[in-house]
Amino acid sequence: MEISLKFQISGLYAVTPDEPNTAELLRKVRLALQGGARVIQYRNKRADELLRLEQAEALRVLTREFSVPLIVNDDALLARRVDADGVHLGGEDGSVAAARAVLGGDKIIGVSCYNQLSLAYQAVSAGADYVAFGSFFVSTVKPDAVAATPDLLRQARRELAVPLVAIGGITVQNGAQLVTAGAHALAVISAVFGAADIQDAARQFSDLKF
Domains in the chain, ordered, with CATH? Predict the structure, then answer.
């Protein structure tokens, strides 16, 4: 199905690691952006509120330098506070309607739908701008995540008119098949930020035929 894009969600969707040092986080994210990352999601499950605010504000400045959207994981209030481009909601992060009430109509709202197409239908009906599926492969970040298959992407690509993001244990080698199956973007943490050369790792993902 052809998608009608209010926002461009495609290519490498880089999700930040749990980095406590803000300067080091910015160094890593800059390298990913220089390598071609098209979306940055700020995610830090270990940070307290003050550190999350500091890091989100700093990333807001950096992503504007590269004209790349900044999405905040889980927290619509933080996204509004730093004027991020949007928020990504997991299964326990509240409704699309609640996030929309906080952020307004001009921001991006993405929703994790795991391996359930029914959740994606609901999210899109509620006004989500993109949906994410996974985990497609074993993830070091979420080793117990439910498993999704490329067939899910194929069906979603036929039936949904929003961008599809794939996540979970994705590498350059296994990610290509997900792009072929229908993913508009690949959400990656470890294979980019855990690489010896972050910029080169990001470039390899960016070179995939999205």
Answer: 11-206 (3.20.20.70)
